Structure formats: C-alpha cells, structure tokens
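User: I want to check something. If I give you two sequences, will you return the structure for each one separately, not as a complex?

Assistant: Yes, each is folded on its own. Here is the first sequence with its structure:
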Amino acid sequence: MIDYTKINSETWNSWAEDGFVYTLPISHEEYEKTTADNFVVRLTPCITVPHEWFGELKGKKILGLASGGGQQMPVLSKLGAECTVFDYSDKQLEADRMVSEREGYNIEIIKGDMSKPLPFENESFDVIINRHGDFNATELYRLLKRGGIFITEQVGGDNDRDLVEMVLPNTEKPFPHLNLKEQKKVFEDAGFDIVEQAEAFRPIKFYDVGAFVWFARIIEWEFPEFSVDKCFEHLLEMQKKIDEKGCVEGTIHRYLIVAKNRFPYAYYSKMQKRQYRSLA
C-alpha cells in the first residue's frame, strides 16, 4: 500500500530544497509592509484570500494545517493573531521557524500527520487554514470554536488526468472523491455550513518533453511507476504533438471550500449522539 503521507513529506522537503514557489518564505520587506489594511495571504499562487474571510485578526487563534513554508503564518502573526503551524515537512516547518526568529514573533511549530487525530483541545481555534493538505472534517469541527472558519484550497481528483492518460493509459485515479460536490457533503455531514465554494479546471501546457518528465517524476502519486524507459513510446508521441502544435496541454483541477461550524463542539456532539440513539 502506498504511504501517501511519507511521499508527501519527502516531496515537500525536496521542493523546498529546489525553491518551489509554495516553499519560499516571505522577505523582511514583505513582513514590514504588512498592515491590517494591506496584507496578502495566498492559498493559490495567483489569488489572495479576501480579508473579510478572516475578520478582525488581533487575538484570534489560528491553525495553519499543512501551511508551513513561512508564507501565511508570518502575515497573520504580524496582524496580532496567535498562530500554530502543523506540518509533516521538516523543511517547511524550518522556514516558519526561520522567519519567526528573524522577525521576533512567537509561533507554535508542530510536526505531525494530518490524517490522524490532532494534538489540540476541543474548540482551540478561531480559524484553520489549509492548502493541499490532508484533513478530517469531523476533527476540524472539534478544533474550531463556535462560528469558527475553515478555509482550504485543494487539488481535485481529476487533476492532470489527461496527461496521465497520455503516458500511463488506464491508470486509476488515486483520489476520485476529491471534488467540490463530494467534499461539500463531507463538511455538511460533519456539521459545517458552507459559506464559500468554488471549483476550477484550468489548462497546463508543456512546451518540452523534458519539462514534462520532471513534472511527472515529482508527483508520483498521480504518475505511479512513471519512468522514461517504461513510457518511452508515449513520450515519443508527446514529442510529435509538441512538434506539430507547439505544446501538449493538460488540465489542472482545484476546488475551494470555506466552512463555518454551527454550534459549539460539545453541543453538536451531544446532538449527534441523540440522533444515533433515535436511529438504533
């Protein structure tokens, strides 16, 4: 069985060493420019999180789940939030540690597996943010205070599928359930109200087969057992398409959910138990 958590950790460590965009901590200049009226938090490379999703940040307790890298937490800390970052990548956590020491603010830094119960008390956080990381919706509800917000942007199950078919035909989807419709229901079943939602399919283009080979190798969960030798004939066909059309094009799949819990966890937990008894 594939250990996706281990692969994910190793991949992010590797990306951090290579200077991938999601692993570059903010500069001192960017930190200094951050104010309540002028701040940028990104869950995607191009789109910033609207300020109103956070509300007043001063004094809020925020958990950055799979949000290491020294990008979001420094901004939220500068604005007065009490931040905790929880990640499985040593390199990403080290980036947050480096920025906090450079700028002189406190942050709790924890390494752990997001697919398991998280080491926090009930109703510990006002806001939880997450980017491309694993989570359990029921566990998130437990951690949020009444009216707490969870904000996530995720890679969908149809991500790069057309590219996968080009080189590894008939490969099963590793995460077919990752789409807005199914995940929205998961959150609603866990007790959340969905306050914002979006799903997008966008083109991704490769103008060079070598670039594609690098891409396929670094996301092995989408391209399992990919190698140049194994996929050589398919790569030749890909090169022909590039020669004819100038590029090969695939499709990226992303979805965003902003969810708000309805009741305090203790109350909601009791309510669920009553429902289960009535069904027994």
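And separately, the second sequence with its own structure:
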Amino acid sequence: MCINLLHPLTILTCATSWILTNLIPTTIQVASANILVQSPKPKQTSNRKPNSGKKVQIAQPPPGQGAPPSTPAQGRPGCPGEMLPQPLTALVPESTIVTQPKNNQKSQLPWGKSTQEHPTFWFYVPYSTSIHSSRFLLKNKTGKLIYQASLPITGTPGIIRVAIPPDTTPLENGKWYEASLIVNIRCSSRTRLDNYLTAWVLREELSAPLKEQLNKQTTPLQQAIFYAENGLWYDALAKIAELKQQNLDDGGWQSLLDSAALGGIADKQIVSCCTPRTKQ
C-alpha cells in the first residue's frame, strides 16, 4: 500500500503496481471472453433425408357422395399349394367403410383420388412363367364398361403400370370408377385359374387455391408431396414412381407405400411392360 504519494519514486512504484494488479488481468479476461463468444459454433450434421418423414394423408370417402361396395385389393394366393410371399395386389390404400349401418357392419374399400381424366393404375404381379393371359377393365359405378384391354405381362414378378389411353372416354369429375385386373395363370397342363382384384378411383378436380399451390411446386418431388398431402393417391404414386425409376425419389417411394400398408412391396422392381392392347 502506497503511503507517501508525494515522493516521485513512490508515485511511480504505486502506478506500476496498480497497473499490474488491475489492468493486465482485466485485459486478459476480456480477451478470453471475446475468444469464447466469437468462436464459431460447430456445424450440426444430420443423416435425415429432407423428405424422409413425409407421409401421405389417406383421404376417407367424402360424405354425401356414396362410396361403392367393398371389393378385394388382393387376389387369391395362386394355384393350390403354391406359396407366394405376396399375392396379386393393387397399389392403393384401403379405407374402412360401413356397409350395413344398422348392424355397424364394416368392410375394406381399396380406393384413391386422382385429378387426371386418364389416370394410371399400379399392380404387383407375383407370377412369372405361369401367366397365360391377362386383361384390364375400367367401369363406372353402375357397371358400364368404359375401357378394356388385354395386357401382355412380361418380366414379372414385379410392379406393372396400366395407363388409360388419352383417346378413351375421360373420367368425369366427382364420379367413381372401378379398375379390375384379371390374370389367368397355368396351374398345370390341364388347369388354369383366374385371379382378379379391383381398385376404385374417385376423379376430383383441383380447386383454384390448390391449383395455385401446385403451381408453386417447382420440382417433381415437391409435386408428389403436394399430391400426397392432399390425398390424391394416384397422382402422387405416378410422380413418385417416375422419380423412383430415376433414383431421385429421396425415399419417397418407400414412405408412400408404407403409409398405405404396402411397404412389403416397395422393394419390388417396376417392370417396363404391359402396353394395353385395346379391345374396343
């Protein structure tokens, strides 16, 4: 402690002591604090794909429009004694509908919505060399035949697509249509079996606000997610399948099929075949 502040040497000594005691530690502390504050934070890394968590919103049959009767989305296993890991299957979600309100009896309806006048349908075909012939039918809700064609199925087991030709009668907005696939398989040299399944589609045009939102989706993946989130199953599936074949779906194919309890088919190949041969 400095007592005699009038002596020059004493003043110099006191000043030096005060600087060493107070200013230097304070400067070091401030500099250290600045280093801690200004150091960049480590970058956060993640293995999560941008759209890997997207789930399709399965739409329920709209009230007041009347869902059609339930029909099978899966065919029979195949020939007697034949063990198939997955039966003939339509790639479409199933909704629970009440068939008899008095008894609260319910059944499953395979269906989805589409904005397209000529949509595309997808099926998993488990057979290979046993296919003898196959045909595709499209009817309206009253059973009137809209389109039919034979299908030369090759390259299966795998997933096939059936696109309705643009010159076919267009699907009407707000109307239900039933698509059926019938596959005739050889069980033996003398025995054949017709295996069939159906899937329904409800044509629904986009409202003006939804059209505006769709126009803002600049990539095919964004468009597929838009369709999925708005319950437009067939449109979403067609977009995702296109990306899947280019390895650009970013996990969307698996996610979409998982959301419809069809995940077991997601690893099956998409077969390039089956150009319809129109019968009418």
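Because they were folded independently, the notes below concern the second chain alone. DSSP finds five helices and ten strands in the chain. The mean pLDDT is 78.
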